[in-house]
Amino acid sequence: METGLPPDFGKENPPMIDHHGRNINKLRISLSEVCNMACTYCVTSLSDHKRAPDELSMDQMLSLIRILKDHAGIEKVRLTGGEPLLYPNLIKVISGIRDLGITSIGMTSNGQLLARKAKALSEAGLKNVNLSLDSLDPEKFKRLGRVGKLHKTLEGIEECLKYGLRVKVNMVVIKGENDEEIVKMLEYGVARGVEVRYLELMGMGPLYKKDDFKLVYMHEILERISERYTIQPVSTDSDSTSLRYWVPGGFFGIIPNNSAPFCSTCSRLRLTSNGQLIGCLSNPTPISIRHFLDHPDPSVPLQNLVKKSISYKQDVAFTGSTLVMSRVGG
Ligand code: SAM
Asked: What ligand 1 atom has the least distance to the C-alpha of 41?
């Protein structure tokens, strides 16, 4: 198999270093494609979120995570979807991942079902939560998400902070929809010690090749914020996907999917709810690894498939895709 990777890549035990020198150690898992919101930039309606007919059971999912940890260098896990809080065994999945020896466990959620679960999630081993919050106005929140209530997500954030979970807020900025709230969202975050991250809209799913793509560029976001705050860029981890800035009282980030793509530092591997690896959003060719559930010695064959998936990582910016984010775990 010709992958363009160094000949010794994956031969030994982990870590999995690719031909860019990236340590591919982060796994983003879509536990299930089911979601309780239908954000306008993600899907066309709630019914677009369909459970995969061959969705892995919880035990199968935990086994695959163990195999990827033991044989392919996975050290950090982020649970997403779909909406992870709808997953019936979420607490058990988290404690199961912790029991595998993985200590960096995060979740990306819309927070609608979070408030009553924050304590149990923290006790199970969850360390950080990225909350999707596109508006602080109840009407706009509903318009952008089609379903859901603002106060529930806000309550979820307060409960997470109470139980020591590190919280970040993800705001997808959309021209004419919520860009007037850029500064308001930062004020909300600074007041709570919560880092706000502004996401540039990506041309995925319903937005693929759409003319009325309401993208707000990074420089526009920075301009808005600098009208109110003094801004200073600060350094980020070498494999970070966001650019980070200091403002008096806190920090914020921008995930510049279009303005300054982070492909060269991306160290993520994605696992779908039915056990397929996806190495790159720009080339989301799935590679199934569920057959390793019954494999007596997955080491080398698994590493070969991880290598193949990683070799799909593009060196260029994201160019758009028909793929819906909830399938690959945003
Ligand atoms: N249900 C969870 C949530 O709402 O956070 C997790 C899944 S959601 C697909 C994960 C992230 O993908 C969210 O932060 C969402 O804003 C982002 N997302 C989905 N479609 C997007 C798009 N077209 N452009 C940018 N971000 C997108």
From this structure: 23
Q: Is residue 105 part of a domain?
A: yes
- What is the phi/psi pair of residue 291, to 5°? -65, -15
3-class DSSP state for residue 1? coil
Does the residue 7 lie in any domain?
A: no
Distance, in Å, from the CA atom of 81 to the CA atom of 310, rounded to the nearest integer, reads 21
At 65 the three-state DSSP class reads: helix
How confident is the model over 27-85, as pLDDT tens digits? Answer: 999 999 999 999 999 999 999 999 999 999 999 999 999 999 999 999 999 999 999 99
Question: How far is ligand 1, taken at its centre, from the CA of residue 325, in Å?
Answer: 6
Domain boundaries, position 48: 26-327
Tally of domains in the chain: 1
Contact indicator for 253, 244 with CB cutoff of 8 Å:
yes
Indicate whether 243 belongs to any domain. Answer: yes
Nearest-CA neighbor of 81 among 56, 117, 44, 118? 56
Cα(81)–Cα(74) distance, integer angstroms: 19
Q: What is the CATH number of the domain that holds 250?
A: 3.20.20.70
Pocket test for ligand 1, best of 34, 42, 80 (most atoms within 8 A of CB): 42
pLDDT band at 12 (very low <50, low <70, confident <90, very high): very low
Confidence of residue 246 (pLDDT cuts 50, 70, 90): very high
Q: How far is the CA of 153 from the centre of ligand 1 (A)?
A: 15
